[in-house]
């Protein structure tokens, strides 16, 4: 009962404008993150799901390693690895139906490729040949978002629009622990709750925003507790337990799809690598902490479970290994080729039709490129004078 | 396309306000295309603080004309998501300065999504922003923020100055497959003009300036709230023997160099007039590009008459800030007429 | 216990970076707003406090009426009335010590004058002669903030700075229900909690943001429930019960001053008038709702209590009435005089030293004003030709 | 004022990077005045992503150099509050595009607080923003946002291009009683110059441009990341027989008309060079004001060489966007030299 429902000498009936006010209890996350692996519940996990998750996690780990290696070879401009977070990345993609939408942040290329986007296209931003390498409509994956938390209102608007159109579409939006501090996080969750938009917000709490640890990011009991302030359920899950993440996200997607409105899921995980290849993590954290978390590795956790239940024989291991290596080899091969770029593309998509001043600049660049090509041809001709007559 | 209520009505031009023409444009756009959605603060039952969305929620329902929570980044950000799904959102920002919280969404997403995705994900979004002063508004209610939007590639920036343009340009903005920042001159909301709401002006293609008054002595280049000032100045200038041409830009992006330069080449002199501050404002760009293109036709440097380079003043002092007829005439007087004789 | 403290086969000790995580229970507001008037607790309320609150409420009500009347006479550009919210306005000012700071929003001139600022100075923004009429340092009142919620981070920074300096200063920041949706609200509360800054956030939930009712603003159980997401206590209070608001805010100030960090207080109240004099509230709400709330009027509530306890005799009533009328008369008199403004002030405070281009513009305006004065003098001379020789 | 470590050290100029000079300026300012506080994302243990705040948290403690939560409006907004209480906050925005979320705080409060309070509440705030491209950054890491800040009265906008200026201008910015947007050219962070860190250049007064290279044929007006390009172009131009003067603005607000116009009056020709987009960018303002003031000294219109009017390109294409030596020389070639003969 709220003040508005009280009756008394001075207090008349509550004005309808105050309705509805809800009971916070069902919105609060459990005190303890949900987990399956290592608990009795693991026995009930579907073997097929366990195998799929395992294959995707192992491949994801390999993908992360390969992408990081490619930065060292100068084939990627930068790579923010999700090593250690594969359970979240993979589950986020697997719980969605084809018609659903994924809204990744810049770290979430693994979720993007798990959803079916070609890895080279997924890495375009980080390779440096264009901003987004895939058509967002093909797999219903929004562009990787670099400005933190800004993709969250997009997910809300899209889910809201789909609902208005009567389409049965859920949007799953990913954000980091650091990103929860941004105003856009707040505004997105509030809009989603008010509009009962079918959105699942997945916060990967990996302990750090670059160098800043969670304790400097928030004083909340957990990030999932933020949900109650918007009137949506908050769920806390062990983000390194792929089965648990998959289950919690599946529930959340089902809840949203059924018209129950948005859900906030905090997956507690850990960024095992530095922020990106350009970062030096030794400046702000010790090896001991990292080692501690290595003991709670998502791939290991799942492998132990599969092994315990006898679901992982040598053949299965080999198949997964081969699949991973194939992915890595393909990535290596295709990223070692230089992309063919047309500088004129710079003007092609600023507007549907270039403005007059862009057309002028386009002609300027065209002339420059022609001059450059000519100069190059001359230089080649001079370098190989005997070929000049060919 | 006319709406049901228009059918069979006897049509005739009668005085309408610029605000009414905007309302009519929204209504016609919503009737013509179910993908058009209006959202913002107080746009529903209230009809917006300037009543531009008056009646839309009643006619089209709250799902088509939606009161949002009070959060501009959230409004624009969700509108981006709606546009991604194929809708054509029309966002209302309540006042110029209250669009600033949405600046990151505007610059980092709205302006770049088409380019980012090589054209795969255009954003047909209209962002209506009441702008400018002269209405006695307290702090933060009278900013001229067009310089920010002009400097952001990927946005169209459009502003009507007449009742007919209010309709035509807003329809064009909503029809555009690109995001349009649609700047509505607050102090012209209640300006009236004969206009036939049953046969509204055809949709203008965005990007064409128009000569509002032909003249031979010098060109006044202007837009939005300063158009009436320039027309008045042109009338007053006749007494001084100057026959001024007045060009209404209507669109800052794209910029119609052709119309502007044709005029300046004819007259040989130009003054850019706007309410926005001078330093770093639109006039610098306009003067620079006119000079680049018409240097040898110019008898004098292109001058600028603009708002002062100060935070917008309180109501009791705003008249000293706003470029008025006298300042325009003074500038015209400084166009080195001695050189003539 | 959180996931990080669990021990098990796969799960090592929690890394220190995850600490601390707090218990949410003490942060949650009560299900029912706190109230004193009309309950047994009223008997314990200090008579002196009751009388002070009453005098301020009555004066405040009169102030609101007078200011609104002045808009009709064109003496104020606009006035957002706090009629119906006087309990919050008055209590917010009274709970602070001299050294504390108040951060008002544009609606809170009543709190500002209750803190001691001259009413005419407090109304400068709304009169239209300048943006802020008082020196913020004199009474430690920040300028009225027009852009919603933007003053909240200022309060946090100031309180944080004071704490760093070792000063015993609390900041109380006021915001509306609508303002809680802004990103700045979120960022401010989060910063305050992380830095344990001594800030009290007072949300006056008056049911509307212009025309938008609370149900379209949030789906939260209450706005006070937002506190838990930041790790600060949230308190819900009947905002029309001046004694309850005073008590809850006093507690919050004490908590903050003692180093306990920030507190979020939601005061449930009602905007009895339109948004401002320029607004037409009939477009979005019915008389019945307003009437309902008139039955829960803060002045009435308090008067009944004073009367019940025999604390309000005719003398006291008269004294309060006289005080109110004196304030109103002073306001009328002083606002009916036109302020003397110097347009050159427009350039005086943009920077410590005007830039060269501002100096140029200043000279232009000076010349214009001189020409204008001359023209006026000429016109006067012509209008009164016989005086021309005087 | 020198710090303890400097005492008694043998001093001599040796190569230092621009980033190192900035670090030194912060350290000296913090040592000189306990009111100076540094705050931002990752400025503590990490020393900032560009290491400009390296060592400050260790030397002055986390209360003086503070890692904040990840929220730019919150950072700038709390810095405003700190300044209100008499501190001198120095805020780091991690990258140009990540200052946009703080736009409302910047425009609606930082720029206006002094004016709003008739001088009673000045905000001595420095907002450091790494800006510009050329470092292979992915989307949102290479914006040139100076046009937005220039168009906002109440802000100073300053940008160093040399190691010595990095120190001197940052000290001056922190010493200023007004808010200063301090734009750090990212691609010059690692540029080196002989510089004596034990006898750092005295603090410059903000607002004076400097002639970096005297010349007689034409003036290149530039700042920040484009200064080295212009100096290189000036060298290359000698081969064509052009003796170019290069003016480094150092401060966009206040703008040093005197130095710039003196140069243009001497040379009679000018090209403005910057990395920011051309349309609505700083060059328009500069060209317009130079033309207003030097019209009869100009042999040709003031030209602009700038970034393209597109969203900043991906790393592999950025060289086509950035104004380079060839584009500068081409523009110089278009300064109507025929008219000479
Ligand atoms: C608005 C904005 N501010 C700053 C940055 C710079 N930045 C990139 S990643 C990052 C840390 C993000 O931390 P978190 O949200 O926890 O995600 P994680 O990197 O851990 O996946 C920062 C500060 C940014 N991308 N966007
Ligand atoms: C950032 C911003 N957006 C929009 C506005 C316009 N506006 C002024 S008051 C108001 C409603 C405020 O509602 P609430 O926060 O509940 O405060 P109340 O008016 O009820 O006191 C709006 C939308 C504003 N002042 N600032
Ligand atoms: Mg993180
Ligand atoms: Mg309210």
TrEMBL record, chains A, C:
Gene3D superfamilies attached to this UniProt entry: 3.40.50.970
Protein name: Pyruvate dehydrogenase E1 component alpha subunit
Top EC class for this record: oxidoreductase
Region annotation Disordered: where it falls in the sequence: 1-28, 370-390
A Pfam family of this chain: E1_dh
Cofactor: thiamine diphosphate
Enzyme Commission designation: 1.2.4.1
Keywords: Oxidoreductase, Pyruvate, Thiamine pyrophosphate
Coiled-coil segments: none
One GO molecular-function entry: pyruvate dehydrogenase (acetyl-transferring) activity
Keyword rRNA-binding: no
From TrEMBL, chains B, D:
SUPFAM superfamilies: Thiamin diphosphate-binding fold (THDP-binding) (SSF52518), TK C-terminal domain-like (SSF52922)
A molecular function (GO) term: branched-chain 2-oxo acid dehydrogenase activity
Pfam families referenced in this protein's UniProt entry, alphabetically: Transket_pyr, Transketolase_C
Superkingdom as given in the UniProt entry: Bacteria
CDD domains membership: TPP_PYR_E1-PDHc-beta_like (cd07036)
Gene Ontology BP terms: branched-chain amino acid catabolic process; response to nutrient
UniProt keywords, alphabetically: Oxidoreductase
Matches recorded under InterPro entries: THDP-binding, Transketo_C/PFOR_II, Transketolase-like_Pyr-bd, Transketolase_C
Occurrences of domain Transketolase-like pyrimidine-binding (ranges): 16-191
Top EC group: oxidoreductase
This enzyme's EC code(s): 1.2.4.4
Statement: the UniProt record of this protein carries the keyword Membrane: no
Cofactor: thiamine diphosphate
Protein known as: 3-methyl-2-oxobutanoate dehydrogenase (2-methylpropanoyl-transferring)
